[in-house]
Amino acid sequence: MSQSTENGFTRVQLNTADAGAVINKNIYGQFAEHLGRLFYDGLWVGHDSDIPNTRGWRTDVLEALQKLAVPVLRWPGGCFSDEYRWRDGIGAAEDRPVRVNTLWGGVEESNQVGTHEYFDLVELLGAEAYVNCNMGTGSPREMAEWLEYMTSHSKSDLAELRRSNGRDQPFRLHHFGIGNETWGAGGFMRPEYYCDRYKHWSTMARVPWDVPTKFVASGGHGADGEAVTEWTDYLTKNIQPNFLCKLDAISFHYYSHPKKKDNSLTLEDLGKATAFPEDEWISTLQAALKMEEFLAANRAVLEENDPEGHVGLYVDEWGTWYDSEEGSQPGFLYQQNSLRDALVAAVTFNIFHRYADRVQMANIAQLVNVLQAMILTEGDRMLLTPTYHAFRMYVPFQGATHVPLFVVGSTDYVCEDRAIPAISASAARTETGELFVSLVNTHPHLEQAIEVAGPDSPLTSARGELLTAEQMDAHNTFDQPANVVPVSYEADATDAGLLLTVPAKSVLVVKVD
Ligand code: AHR
């Protein structure tokens, strides 16, 4: 919107009287696949490691993740789930078979992390469990048996097997995905074919009657035109959920690349994670902002086909995807993470908040050492990425109620033939009544003076944190892990109101009173 305000400043006008939807905490979810150095090195070092660990999990990484209040963790893939045999990952560690992780680098998969270790991790994080089964090379029987193993409180042989492996009580399974990217690497299926398969598998997917597991169908992905809603539309028109054939959510995947690839499947020439030109700063943010049109289109289809709102949308893979770092194994998807990634995360959170009525989960790809990671590790060292800091700053938005707002008088940031709004804003009220506002300045050169105004009583102060840096590609390294870290921020109202100065290329999250 480009109309100007009386005082010439951009104004963020909060509509606190008109409560929006509750922002499901799971929008801040994470994704952990058996890929590259995510588990082995990044998280799991084993009980006997010299690296301090908690039952095999790196203590430094664990403690950092606990500060993010990770609400849900999707596992074991991704594409990996389509070759995962759950029985390989149970029982004595030394007896577990070594397999080949065929897609992600063709490296050995030791199976040292399996079902029990995954649930130990989610319990240590206080997160919900989201397990994706193997529709690629598995069978409905394997899926049904895994479900029984995880969730049964009976004396069945599978429940007893779980007990003999050290777990008496069933694991709490909150979400269960059937298929992954079935439009692509999951089998290049048509929606019609997958829909029939989903109905079959979902009907065979049984959990005890008192366990409220949510069942998730593999849906569509970021695409042009009607293709973006094709899967959501077909599945919701052709599945009538009942207590046998369950459907609680449909997934949606979208990655942002600096250089657009017309949805072609390639891992090359996507753009670099650092040392990029300004036109890739704007193209990456512009790509991230497309999430809004994808969600709007899918929400419209869901409102038409499922007006009572039974089916949620889980954006269970999203984030930036760049060229792998030079010298790293290309199949490991290891990339640096800069201030640009923090802005991508923040503008995406602000979009998710606006669609909180349907978007019930989102899982950034991925947790450690893979794609847009929270944490990078090297031997016994680790660093927190700018994306980690954005997630931490936004913790107060988990479970808060979205407050609609208008941005008045905002200009565009223009670079060559591209233009995006210079300001992305969001607000929410927590359960305890605190009001939080986030402001993202996408302009890499110009600071913005923004007036934040409520509907009636004047706002008097803002206290919070600011994330910014001198360079667009500023990032943390193992030798300089504090190049990009949040600093505290405060501002008090004057006669002109509550005016916040938001530096160029920054993310600001404040509590306003
Ligand atoms: O996150 C990496 C991969 O991206 C996942 O395995 C797959 O689902 C997607 O294509």
Describe what this molecule looks like in 3D.
The structure is a single chain. The protein is of the alpha/beta class and 513 residues long. The chain is built from ten helices and 26 strands. The chain has an eight-stranded parallel β-barrel, surrounded by five helices. A six-stranded antiparallel sheet has the order 16-20-21-26-23-24, covered by helices on one side. It has a four-stranded mixed sheet with strand order 17-1-22-25, with no helix packed on it. Helix 6 (230-238) packs parallel to helix 8 (291-305) and helix 9 packs parallel to helix 10. The longest helix has 16 residues, at 339-354. The site of alpha-L-arabinofuranose (AHR) has 11 residues, from loops.
Shape: globular
In terms of DSSP E residues, the strand content is: 15-25%
**Main β-sheet: number of strands, strand sense, barrel status?**
8 strands, parallel, barrel
The CATH H-level superfamily of the largest domain is Glycosidases
Rg: 23 Å
Provide the CATH topology of the largest domain. TIM Barrel
Number of helices: 10
In short:
The chain has 513 residues and is of the alpha/beta class. 22% of the residues lie in helices and 25% in strands. Residues 33, 77-79, 180-181, 185, 317, 365-366, 371 line the site of alpha-L-arabinofuranose.
